[in-house]
Specification:
The complex is a heterodimer of chains A (426) and B (225). By secondary structure, chain A is mainly α. Helix content of chain A is 67%, strand content 0%. Classes of the chains: A mainly alpha (426), B mainly alpha (225).
């Protein structure tokens, strides 16, 4: 068994410090873990995320939320899942059958694959490819294709509209999402998610620096847009285009979309946590408290570190998800042209500038030698504030011009008909 | 052994999907086959221990090129992409000839290569993967380190040895982008200049009312935020 085939069967061999002989029972063990974690734990997390979202949104809207099935409505997600599974799957007569069935699977696969490189604790990562961050971006960029195919194969105008919106939005927000990750890669000097985690154990969370804070904010906005949640839920805007790309899906095929959406919410929260919030490490004074145990693969240190890291990681992910629910319950949906302008005129330039600021921070702190935090904070903090203020005022100025231009455009129903050409002589 | 079997399976699937891309009548199906082909190329990269290139392949070709292809199909043809494609016979012969020519050049170039890059044997005599960088010998396991630093080596080579090709590709893409915008903006409605003319014409109808309204919108739109 050489390194290449080892990577080709990655789940089986992952995280073994020395690659052991691949005997039968090892395969059985890893397949069992795969089955339990990927088919048990993650769908379970999704089910209770849905429950939590309904409860939280209910609190925000002064309601009670699900409270009929089980205590506090805790069995509601199970009832929902059973309902979805037993419902009839309908494929529209005119739909492109094969593509119609493949599309939700594609989105779900993309959502699952993202989780493979997330380091939940010390050594608690399914695979650790050397270019893990790039792998993560690559597999998550497959989901727009699935969404497009779902909308296209349904032969429904609203589905197609939703798919067009989704693809335009996802492609646009992928750019700032990737660019806001670049500072982390710059500071770590590696694309491996585990290396990023180790670097944060050593140097503290990446969010505690002006460019890190800005990068985290940009990443969070782009993340919310990438998983199609309010205020960026235009692809499935139910009051405009029914349900967008999954209008024609029913039963468990719709359930797959649902699962994939919440799984990606979980995935991007894990991404934000692992990249900027220090993974499973404790807050600042204790960030490297367990450093001496990390990376030693004795049973005791493994259990000790992960007994702390995994719950802390999950708590951070939970807070991140709660923030996303909060935003959804608070903000109304964006207008479609504003959505695009915001990505291309505001977030992309700002994240490019942030890469330069991150390089300055690297020079002050990460460059071998004594880290100079004070001067680093002063210089990069000023740079971040100036660039954010300049970008906001530029964006607002362009927005005002555009609004005036839209207002002066002949619109139906405003008493002004579109003027046919040549009528100026009137 | 496992590697050989995997290589065979991936290659056969790759050939099937490549043929499917050419033979599919529906454009979206053809594009889907192309996506599968790109994915199998990424698998081949994995077999060559180039997992960085595999990730780039998926990111660039599936995540970007395939999506743009779908957009292109939807925006330029029938919106549902149902048009079946028929290629006229003369074009078919010509394109077949060109494709065969390209294949022959590539095959000949690989098969008859007498001399490798400086300090290396030609490809067909190599059984071991060549060392990628100069400083990989003092690492613990050179092969693993090369794989680990593949992003670094690819980046360094792109900006030193292959910088001309890199820049030319960049210029080509920029030209394509500019050209696409020029073509897309030829419609009269999307031209800002004509739009201003139109709005002036509209304003000529009832100048006073329009003036008041537009200044009001300006005020409200600036005051609401």
């Amino acid at each position: 068994m050489n390194a290449s085939t080892g990577w080709a069967a990655p789940i089986l061999l992952a995280q073994q410090p020395e690659i052991p002989a691949l005997d039968f029972w090892l395969i059985v063990k890893w397949l069992l873990i795969l089955a339990i974690v990927f088919f048990g734990i993650f769908p379970g997390i999704v089910a209770y995320m849905v429950w939590a979202e309904r409860k939280i949104a209910a609190r925000f809207q002064d309601r009670i939320g699900p409270n009929r099935v089980g205590p506090l409505g805790l069995l509601q997600p199970i009832a929902d899942a059973l309902k979805l599974i037993t419902k009839e799957n309908i494929v529209p007569a005119t739909a492109d059958k094969v593509v119609h069935i493949v599309a939700p699977v594609m989105i779900l696969v993309s959502a699952f694959l993202v989780l493979a490189v997330i380091p939940f604790g010390s050594g608690m990562v399914a695979i650790n490819p050397p270019s893990g961050a790039l792998y993560l971006i690559a597999v998550s960029s497959m989901s727009p294709l699935g969404i497009f195919l779902a909308g296209w194969s349904s032969r429904n105008k609203y589905s197609l509209l939703g798919a067009m919106r989704a693809v335009a939005q996802l492609v646009s927000y992928e750019v700032p999402q990737v660019l806001s990750i670049v500072p982390v890669i710059l500071w770590t000097g590696s694309l491996s998610m585990v290396a990023i985690f180790d670097r944060q154990v050593e140097y503290g969370w990446f969010i505690f620096s002006p460019p890190g804070l800005l990068g985290f904010a940009l990443l969070t906005i782009a993340n919310i847009a990438e998983v199609n949640r309010a205020p960026f839920d235009l692809p499935e805007a139910e009051s405009e285009i029914i349900a967008g790309y999954h209008t024609e899906y029913s039963g468990m095929r719709f359930g797959l979309f649902f699962l994939a959406e919440y799984l990606s919410v979980f995935g991007v929260s894990c991404l934000g946590t692992a990249l900027f919030l220090g993974g499973g490490t404790l807050p600042p004074p204790f960030t490297n408290a367990l450093q001496e145990y990390v990376g030693t693969y004795t049973t005791g240190s493994f259990l000790l570190t992960n007994a702390i890291y995994v719950p802390v990681f999950m708590a951070k992910v939970g807070l991140y998800i709660f923030f996303m629910f909060w935003v959804r319950a608070t903000l109304p949906r964006l207008r479609v042209d504003r959505l695009m302008n915001f990505a291309w005129k505001f977030m992309v330039p700002l994240s490019v500038i942030n890469v330069f600021i991150a390089a300055v921070w690297y020079e002050f702190v990460f460059r071998p030698g004594q880290p100079r935090y004070l001067i680093g904070w002063t210089v990069t903090g000023a740079m971040v504030i100036v660039s954010v203020v300049v970008m906001i005022s530029l964006y607002r100025a362009s927005d005002v011009i555009e609004e005036a231009e839209i207002a002066s455009r002949p619109l139906p129903g405003r008493g002004r008909r579109p003027i046919p050409t040549g009528s100026t002589a009137r | 052994m496992t590697q050989a079997i995997l290589f065979g399976v991936i290659s056969v699937l790759g050939l099937i999907t490549a043929l499917g891309t050419v033979l599919a009548r529906n454009l979206v199906h053809a594009a889907l086959m192309l996506v599968a082909f790109f994915f199998l190329v990424a698998c081949q990269f994995l077999l060559l221990e180039a997992e960085f290139l595999a990730a780039v392949q998926v990111l660039v070709y599936i995540g970007a090129v395939a999506i743009l292809l779908m957009f292109g199909i939807m925006l330029t043809r029938n919106i549902l992409g149902d048009d079946t494609t028929t290629v006229p016979k003369s074009t078919r012969r010509l394109s077949m000839l060109i494709a065969l020519g390209v294949f022959a050049v590539l095959a000949l170039g690989i098969a008859t290569q007498q001399q490798g890059p400086p300090g290396r044997k030609p490809w067909k005599e190599l059984t071991e993967r060549p060392a990628v960088g100069p400083d990989d010998l003092d690492r613990k396991t050179p092969k693993a380190q090369i794989v680990n630093d593949m992003a670094k080596f690819v980046g360094r080579d792109l900006l030193t040895r292959y910088v001309i090709a890199f820049e030319v590709a960049g210029i080509l893409l920029t030209a394509a982008l500019v050209g696409a915008i020029v073509i897309a903006h030829q419609e009269r409605d999307d031209d800002p200049a004509t739009r201003v003319l139109e709005s002036e014409a509209a304003a000529a109808d009832d100048a006073a009312a329009a003036d008041a309204e537009s200044s009001r919108t300006l005020l409200t739109s600036s005051s609401t935020r």
